[in-house]
Design brief:
By secondary structure, this protein is mainly alpha-helical. About 75% of the residues lie in helices and about 0% in strands.
Length: about 110
């Protein structure tokens, strides 16, 4: 039986902006989230604009789906089981990039002292 829950339309949209399909995982739509993520990657390899279009669609879809969940038009069975693992991987990726950029900047700084 579906639970009543409030989904933030802003959070759903921002999550899809950060990682295409993450807003769908937040809304409990695992298959749609994985499909949009995969589609954005494949489409970006074919033609960059296509990937951007899919990302904008994911943002729009996540926000409107959150609204539909709030109005009881779409059932909500809880966040996708993939939501937290993806969030954790995304945080790890951000930390690795920050460390890499910091190491690169320190290396360039020591190189410029020669």
């Amino acid at each position: 039986m579906p639970r009543t829950a409030t989904r933030s339309t802003v959070a759903a949209g921002v999550l899809s902006l950060l990682c295409c399909g993450l807003g769908q995982l937040y809304n409990g739509q695992t298959l749609k989230g994985v499909a949009l993520f995969s589609g954005a990657i494949i489409a970006s390899r074919v033609y960059n604009l296509l990937g951007i279009i899919i990302i904008f669609f994911a943002i729009f879809d996540a926000s409107t789906t959150a609204t539909k969940i709030n109005h009881g038009k779409v059932p909500f069975n809880g966040k996708s089981i993939l939501f937290w693992p993806v969030v954790i991987l995304y945080i790890i990726l951000i930390i690795v990039v920050i460390l890499f950029v910091g190491t690169l900047a320190a290396g360039l700084e020591s190189f410029s002292n020669f």
